[in-house]
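quick one before i forget lol
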Amino acid sequence: SALPSETEEPLTVTIGADGGISIQNSEIAREDLVPRLRAIAAERADDRVFLRADGAVTYDVVAQVMGALNAGGFNSIGLVTDVGGPALDGSDG
């Protein structure tokens, strides 16, 4: 049989352009983020989480959410990027 972490849906936290935060598809108030993450972590075998942030969000906000993820019990944070982002060679303008 599969290990628990192989059967769990990956946990995804999203920061929208307006700074709103969602866990999976449910928006959550910023002050409720750490308590909710702790409750989720207590029920999961896997401490991995994927963090997606809109390009308009400042690095400071992303870093704060990463800190909350860590405080909530998630120590393996993957940053999700979308295909078609800016070119690193400056050719996109």
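fyi The first helix runs from residue 4 to 7.
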